[in-house]
Amino acid sequence: MKIFAIADLHLSFGIPGKEMDVFGKQWEGWTDKIFNHWNEQIDSEDLVLLPGDISWAMHPSDVMADFDWINDLPGTKVIIRGNHDYWFSSAKKAREALPPSIHLVHNDVFHWNGVDIAGTRLWDSPAFSFEQYIHFVKNPRAKVSLEERESKEHMEKIYERELHRLELSLKQLKSDTRLVMTHYPPVSADLQPSLASQLFEKYHVQAVVFGHLHSLKKGVSMFGELNGIEYILTSCDYLDFCPKKILDL
Ligand SMILES: [Fe+2]
Ligand SMILES: [Fe+2]
Predict the structure, then answer these.
(1) Which ligand is located closest to the Cα atom of residue 216?
(2) Which fold has domain 2-248?
(3) What is the pTM of this model?
């Protein structure tokens, strides 16, 4: 049994016309690339972590085609909500809609074959940014205005709420093997400690997988190990659309 991770699938099977190549040539045929790489490496007994930005769907009814696509892929899957998952209205409604092989972590923990997975979306940290690592591509679909996005006060408020949600989830970890999914990176690219990393250390987490960062400059070293915890960026364009193996049990 193995555990893989790949974030930011950004699917749109229920609402055609949301092709990802507006964000760069690397995204051409992205769902075929994910499908092929997934089937090459992942078996039905494996687990795949999908840390957010699952779908462009705006409404619960539009996300079902994307869930069905994921459900048909081999393995058990665990999702958290990303900043683009507008289809998400409540954990209860999401769980009612999810097909059998997909599970949601939201203020709780997913238990799987002796491995516990906690998680939360997080948010942009007021303490660090990734601007210098990214080829900026304007997002024509952004819902949050630039003013709102850049308001420090707003950012701090959401970040604090997310830290609270993170601890709520971390408190429920019981197994010796402890993984966490966040959508936003919980530490800086050069691994400066953060309020989130302090929580991971307090609750003895082994690895954290996350996404959200796209169009990264090539050949720049980012993330790695900090105080015994592995921080792994799994945005699908960063991984060339190939799920990354996190654990071999
Ligand atoms: Fe994304
Ligand atoms: Fe995102």
Answers:
(1) 1
(2) Purple Acid Phosphatase; chain A, domain 2 (3.60.21)
(3) 0.94
